[in-house]
Amino acid sequence: MALDVGVLGYRFMGTAHANAFARLPMFFPDTPDVTRDVLIGRDEDALGDARTRLGFDRTATDWRSVVDEVDVFYNLGPNFLHAEPAIAALEAGVSVFSEKPLAATLDGATEMAAAARSAGVPTACGFNYRFVPAIRYARELIQSGTLGDIRTFRGRYLQDWLVDPEAPWSWRLDAELAGSGALGDLGAHTVDLARFLVGDAPGGGRIERVSGHLRTAVTERPVEGPAGETRPVTVDDEYTAQLAFEDGAIGLLEGSRIAPGHKNDHTIEIHGSEGSLRFSLERLNELEMLGPDDRGYETVLVTDETDPYIDHWWPPGHVLGWEHTFVHENASFLRAVAEGDAYEPSFADGLAAQHVLAAIEASDQSGSWERVTETSE
Ligand code: SOE
Question: For a pocket test of ligand 1, which of 172, 186, 190, 262 has the largest count of ligand atoms closer than 8 A to its C-beta?
């Protein structure tokens, strides 16, 4: 079966997914064939160049004209543009992949998840870090009880691309266009990993209550173009949050785009009654484990037989990188689309994460702990 794919967005995420499409027939031949049918964007010149570079058959400058012509619609555009095209595609019975956070607002995410339920087709929310081999291995260890009862989840995601106050303004710095800043851009991933790793583990469970703190350190940034022009920054540069899981575990999260020296530092630590696990995205082929005998952390190299994707790539020890997470994610999603199977992380997972993000923001406003009242409905 061949799937015609339409992709809105052709920069960072567009390239990551197009690269995945190109790798699939070589490394995951059991995935349906993908026809890179149509690339969608507004700037015709940039779009034309991207079409050639990313290997698409045609381009479109209006998503409305093509969204019902494909089998799968990838929405990789800015957050404010996630809801409307995704809902239109779902209403036409087309499967949708949306980058994270699911939408700029909780209302938008709620409508997207409702449209997904009505359409009954597979949907995906772009939580690609679930597809790091070490993270999947960590989940297996937690599920099989190796860590005992989970007591603490600690997740931080730090970047430094906004340290310089002269770093230019972009849509990611505007509340209307992005929803939130470090919280939605980075925290969405950490919240999803908290759900994925300990959401159904002993001691973990649903995230029930949160307390949050958001801060904008640089409130105006220069606009690219005319010298001297600036625009306000209306989203957070950094956030912290505490979580209470329903079965007792506590969580500590932080995210920042103004952390000098941290390029893409997504670090997870989990403590259980029988041991601990540590993972860092900047050393993604490794998982650090400490057992009940407390003889120090031991580094497990994931590129051996414990690696769930080892059969698809290179012999043990030939390390994988960030881009491989997109290949794994797309292999799994496209198989689900072809078979009409359930897929996770879906829009329901995107919505569940968005409820947690919204509660963290509400707590920052109220100064009190907030209940995460909804899950994925
Ligand atoms: C930018 O901060 C960004 O590209 C995020 O949007 C991605 O989700 C993250 O994986 C890497 O950093």
Answer: 186
Count CB neighbours of 45 within 10 A.
Answer: 7
Q: Is 159 in the pocket of ligand 1 (CB under 6 A)?
A: yes
d(Cα 133, Cα 119) in Å, to the nearest integer?
A: 31
Q: Are strands 207-215 and 2-8 parallel, antiparallel or unpaired?
A: unpaired
- Mean pLDDT (10-residue bins), the chain, 377 residues: 95 98 98 98 97 98 98 98 98 98 98 98 98 96 96 98 98 98 98 97 97 98 90 98 98 98 98 98 96 92 85 93 98 97 97 98 98 72
Give the Å distance between the CA of 157 and the centre of ligand 1.
10
- Residue closest via CA to ligand 1's atom 1 equals 185
Q: 82 near 74, Cβ under 8 Å?
A: no
Query: Under a CB-based contact definition with an 8 Å cutoff, are residues 257 and 161 in contact?
Result: yes
Cα separation, 170 vs 365, whole angstroms: 24
Collapsed DSSP state (helix, strand, coil) of residue 158: strand
What is the complex's ipTM, to 2 decimals? 0.95
Residue 192 near ligand 1, beta carbon < 6 Å: no
